[in-house]
Amino acid sequence: MSQGLSGLVPCLSLEDQIYQADDLISLNTSLSSQPSTEPLCQDSQSEGSCGTFSMESDAEEKGFMDVRVIPASFHRSNSQQCYQMAAYPMYRRPRGLAIIIDIEVYENDVQERRFGSNVDVENMKALLGGLEFDVTVEKNLHFAHFFEVITKFCSDKRHQEADMAVVVILSHGKDGVVYTADGQSINMEYIYEFFNNRNCPLLRGKPKFFIVQACRGDRPDQGVDSSGVFTETPSPLRIVSQSKRRRTETLDAIACSQDSSDVGKARPTWEDMIIAYSTIPGYASLRDHNKGTWFLQSLVEVFMTHAHDTELVDLLRMTSERLSQFTNEMGDKQTCNIEMRHLYKRIYFNPGLGLPVTKVARSQSMPPCYQGKVDQEFLNLPRKVKECFRQPPERKS
User: What is the pLDDT of residues 134-166, one digit of tens each?
Assistant: First the structure.
């Protein structure tokens, strides 16, 4: 069966061994009996904070949040769960530069105003600041100014002394493009190309994290009944009702034509990139007029609570799980999409931690510590070369 699926889907990798139910139970028992190498909460502060946010709690729109990033207890350099995969260095202060580009208002009403985007900007700014990034916010950029800002950011000399860079874009869009304040479209691949190894050598070998809050189509996700397979065809009344959304909720999308946008191909010089899209190609991204978008709220909630002990890819998995819990009056759902381009290592933000303390190695010529009290005279620096080789005085029993 696995060979058949692998033949149909070339990129699909399946296990050759098929486990029975009894095997899975015994495997789970053996794994659970092994002692954990890393506690879930490293200190009292982390332990108390672990209960502040639960993936099991009901998802609800919150608007402006009290964003407080939990500091890490120690530097994580390797992950035993990923076969000793290394981690990118993350100790400089600030960690690096972050830019938030928010297109909320469009000239001459060429696009609908993105009400609620200011909530996302403030929450993201607080989050990135808590993760120790130097944050810049740019709003309502025209086409030329947009590229001017991107060019200036990617060529900033401060990247040389940084560990990472973050780019956040909030705008209307469709698959492959976002729209500037004057209504012109920008291919997202052009933006990413500014940060590849050829065009941005200062960030070579350093992770580049892109967060894109924009629609990639106009299709709503009506969800699936989790109790069973839903085979009923959608009724005309339900199709018509999709246009009658509540007034405080809109999409970050424009009307899409049948022709897909021209998306450039990734080049071999692109690496150390991870891109988080608010939705999958062809689908809309939901935004509340008063409380912001589902995706960025989910991301901020997860990151501020778990970034101190969880690496980036796992954080985005948790964000996806949190996002799946949101729904609206129409029963719409939303699915985010994560893309990695040669991301070789794991990313721990290590909030609150600076340069790791280097342990001083004991010199071989230094005498070992003796148990009990040692004569103070022996601990003093010798004045003559011969004194370096004399034995310590015998201790009286």
Answer: 999 999 999 999 999 999 999 999 999 999 999
Q: Which helix (H) or strand (E) holds 191?
A: helix 188-193
Beta bridge partners of 180: none
pTM, 2 dp: 0.66
Q: How far apart (Å, rounded) are the C-alpha atoms in residues 152 and 145?
A: 10
DSSP 329: T
The DSSP letter of residue 377 is H
341 membership: H or E segment, kind and range? strand 337-341
Nearest to 328 by CA among 254, 248, 252: 248
Farthest-apart Cα atoms in the chain, separation: 100
How distant, in Å, are the alpha carbons of 217, 223, 243, 324 from that of 190?
19, 33, 33, 30
Residues 6+ apart with CB under 8 A from 367: 392
The whole-angstrom separation of Cα 57 and Cα 48 is 17
Q: Which helix (DSSP H) or strand (DSSP E) does residue 288 occupy?
A: strand 286-288
Half-sphere exposure at residue 208, Cβ-oriented, CA atoms within 13 angstroms: 24
Q: Are 96 and 164 in contact (CB under 8 A)?
A: yes
